[in-house]
Amino acid sequence: MEIKVLGPGCANCHKMEELARKAVAELGIDARIEKVSDIAEIMKYTMSTPGLVVNGRLVHSGKPLPDMEKIKDLIKQEA
Amino acid sequence: MDRASHLSGALEFFIYDTLKIFMLLTVVIFIISIIRSYFSPERTRKLLSHKKEFIGNGLAAGLGVVTPFCSCSAVPLFIGFIEAGVPLGVTFSFLIASPMINEIAVVLLWSLLGWKLTALYIGTGLLVSITSGVIIGRLKLEKWVEEYVYKIRTGQGMEAIAPTFTERLLAAKQNTAEILKNIWPYIVIAIAIGGLIHGYVPEDFLLKYAGPDNIFAVPLAVVIGVPLYSNAAGVIPIVSALISKGLAVGTVLAFMMAVTALSLPEMIILRKVIKLPLLAVFVGIMTLTIIIVGYLFNAIL
């Protein structure tokens, strides 16, 4: 599974990355998490950061951030 | 004895003010968070696409107030707007209104300075956003937008995912807790500083340098305000103390707008999408309109 966290590098984006890593660890799944900060790359998916992309599909964008349970659900749905 | 009662009075005032502000903030941020969940940047972009001058700028300023976005999203948002055919001036009206008029500013102003001044701040804030946007639009500065902005193409997944109402409530609750957690120290410190100014700064001291008679007070307030990077939470309690010390309302409004609407980190972020001359024009126009607002209110109030 491939997970991308989209964000130019602000507090919310870091938090999203942290949440995604924790969610993956708690779900115990094998996933590669990549932090994307290149604007052109981010814009392929969304203009509202932070964004979460699972297997090439945008599952969350913008503020407010989803909580831990929601992120787990979003990842599980795509698994 | 007298001194002790003075101190306990100040303390009581401090506790009462802090509690009142936090209760109001909790309620208002929660309600606004729900309202905001209906305005995604994607929808706003669609609404503003190919809008005409004035109508577009007015709409953009209004939507700037309610559309949620994290300050570091300014770059993707800017690119997304331009790509969707939102005029440059309209985009700027949005970007100016957004940090200047927000729920925290409104709550603090209302609770510390009353509804009249709050309405005045919102009204002039919208006016500054619209005017600056219209001027930037008229100047036709599209050539000073970085070339790569026009080349980026956005993907299909741009439609925001619509949450259910329960999800909105949950997100709003979480958002409220998050914002309060981030701003509470600033508010407490600012209320304390405000209290100190209130109690210990002699009235004639400020009046001498920044009173209604000093014609340089307004530009001075703006020049001091621009490099001060703070959010509304950190400025308003101090501002309210300054007003109680007799500082002219126009001067104080100009100071507040300079602090909230013009900040160095924001300029650094914007520099990624616009070239230096446009950034300079943006800062220049903002500074000028804010100074004019300051003088105007000093003259009529």
- Taken in chain order, the helices and strands of chain B follow as HHHHHHHHHHHHHHH
Query: Quick check: average pLDDT of chain A?
Result: 88
Overall, the morphology of chain B is globular
CA gyration radius of chain B, whole angstroms: 20 Å
CATH architecture of chain A: 3-Layer(aba) Sandwich
Structural class of chain B: mainly alpha
Largest interface: A-B, 29 and 33 residues
Q: Report the principal-axis shape of chain A.
A: globular
Number of domains of chain A: 1
**How big is the Rg of chain A?**
11 Å
Determine the strand fraction of chain B and express it as a percent band.
Answer: under 5%
- Alpha-carbon distance between the termini of chain B? 40 Å
Elements of chain A, N to C (H/E): EHEHEEH
Structural class of chain A: alpha+beta
What can be said about the biggest beta sheet of chain B? none
Strand element count of chain A: 4
Flag low-confidence runs of chain B: none
> Helical stretch count of chain A?
3
Q: How are the strands ordered across the major sheet of chain A?
A: 2-1-3-4
Return the CATH class of chain A. Answer: Alpha Beta
What low-confidence regions of chain A span 5 or more consecutive residues with pLDDT below 50?
A: none
